[in-house]
Each structure stands twice: as structure tokens, then as C-alpha cells.
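ok, trying the design again with the full structure, not the truncated one.
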């Protein structure tokens, strides 16, 4: 099964692998599933630890083809909205699919976020104190390109707007967005307002820079701060804000 989702100039193509490769086991042992069968025998796969049920844990693996942004500058130029926000709870679940192919569909969750600071929103898409972010339902899917987002996490998000005309499954929610290229558009923000990229694709503030010659992180006290590791991009929120000001269209 294939699924194509187009958002403005961003086209994501996801291929769901065969069910025989989709059984996820919590142990290191492997098991086989008959490709023609839609059910899984309890004995053929492991059970979640602590579960009293004999039902196996089955998730489908998605592989994605994404535009890749290597700098904050490129992300800022492509985003509809850039915001610092705190993750809340899941507000809605739905299956997004091709209306012309009723058998297709990708399980999604829509998590509520509370606005901390809007860095870029020229069209006024965010109204009020909350909005929603569309994410793959990792209870049902394995998505290597999407890391976990938990309630209470403070994040810098580079977002694409999602319209109900394009994705009817988001109804009845309003103000729904999707991170640019999954983890590529997601950064963690700590208490010192230092941001760290979740995607290894991000290596610099500006296009053409390398991670070796990127500017040091400068805290709100004016002091330079060491990064955790040499291959993880980080910067201060003020440095990011400066780049956004010059890079956003």
C-alpha cells in the first residue's frame, strides 16, 4: 500500500512494508507471519511485558521520502509558521488516506500545543493560545523519521499548515500543522533557551556553514556554552531568532 500526502510544495511518499515484516516483538527473537493472513497467531510473536492479554503487538513500518533541510535558514524559508510551544495531550485520532482509495490510510494523532512564543506567522494562522500538530500514531506505526513527543516538552517547531480541504481527517480541529519533514522541523528547547536539533540533517544556522564552523551557543547571560556533542546541532534561541528574521520570506 502506498500513500501520498501533498502539502503545498512538500510531497511525502510513504510505503507500508509487507505485514510479514510488520510484527514488532519486544524481545530480540524473530517470528514469521503468513503474508496472506490478516491475523497473527499469539504463539508466533511476543507479548508486551506486563500484559495479561495474549494479543501480539503489531505495528506497521513506514518509510519516508522527505525534503531535507540542513540549516535553520532553509527551514525558516520553507515554513508557514515558526513557534516555540509546549506539548499537551493528544486531542484527536484519525486515519488519513486517499479519498479515491478507501482501503488506504495512515493512522495519525493530533496533539495539542500551547503557544510560548510565535517567531514567524505572517498570515496569522495561529489564533489564540493553542494549536494542533499532526503526527504519526506510533502506537500503530513504526516511523524512523519521527521521535517521540511527550506532554510537557518545550519545542521549537518549523511547521506546514494543514487545511481541512486537503486533509478532511483533521475535522473538527482547526489550526492544524505538520512539522517540516518530520523530525527535521523539531528542536528541543531547554530552560536556558538553548535549542537542539532532533534531526542529524541539521548542521548549521545558515546554509553553507558546517557544524565545525557554526557559531558557539551564547546563553542569555552572554556566556558561550559548550554543545553536548560535536555532531548534534545546537544554538541559542536568540541566534535562531536572528536567522529567522533574515531568512523568512
Amino acid at each position: 500500500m502506498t500513500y501520498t500526502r501533498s502539502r503545498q510544495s512538500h510531497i511525502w511518499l510513504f510505503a507500508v512494508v509487507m505485514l510479514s515484516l510488520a510484527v514488532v516483538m519486544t524481545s530480540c527473537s524473530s517470528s514469521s507471519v503468513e503474508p496472506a493472513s490478516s491475523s497473527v497467531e499469539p504463539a508466533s510473536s511476543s507479548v508486551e511485558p506486563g500484559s495479561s492479554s495474549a494479543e501480539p503487538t503489531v505495528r506497521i513500518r513506514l518509510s519516508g521520502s522527505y525534503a531535507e533541510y540542513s540549516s535553520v535558514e532553509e527551514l525558516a524559508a520553507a515554513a508557514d509558521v515558526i513557534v516555540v510551544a509546549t506539548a499537551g495531550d493528544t486531542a484527536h485520532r484519525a486515519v488519513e488516506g486517499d479519498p479515491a482509495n478507501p482501503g488506504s490510510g495512515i493512522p495519525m494523532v493530533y496533539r495539542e500545543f500551547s503557544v510560548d512564543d510565535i517567531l514567524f506567522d505572517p498570515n496569522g494562522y495561529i489564533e489564540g493560545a493553542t494549536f494542533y500538530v499532526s503526527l504519526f500514531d506510533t502506537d500503530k506505526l513504526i516511523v524512523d523519521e519521527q521521535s517521540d513527543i511527550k506532554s510537557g516538552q518545550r519545542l521549537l517547531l518549523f511547521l506546514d499548515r494543514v487545511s481541512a480541504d486537503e486533509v478532511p481527517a483533521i475535522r473538527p480541529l482547526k489550526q492544524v500543522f505538520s512539522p517540516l519533514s518530520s523530525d527535521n522541523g523539531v528542536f528541543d528547547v531547554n530552560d536556558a533557551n538553548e535549542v537542539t536539533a532532533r534531526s542529524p540533517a541539521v548542521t548549521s544556522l545558515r546554509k553553507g556553514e558546517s557544524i565545525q564552523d557554526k557559531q558557539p551557543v551564547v546563553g542569555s547571560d552572554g556566556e558561550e556554552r559548550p554543545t553536548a556533542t560535536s555532531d548534534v546541532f545546537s544554538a541559542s534561541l536568540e541566534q535562531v531568532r536572528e536567522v529567522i528574521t533574515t531568512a523568512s520570506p
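Keeping the full-length input from now on. The chain is about 5% helix and 35% strand.
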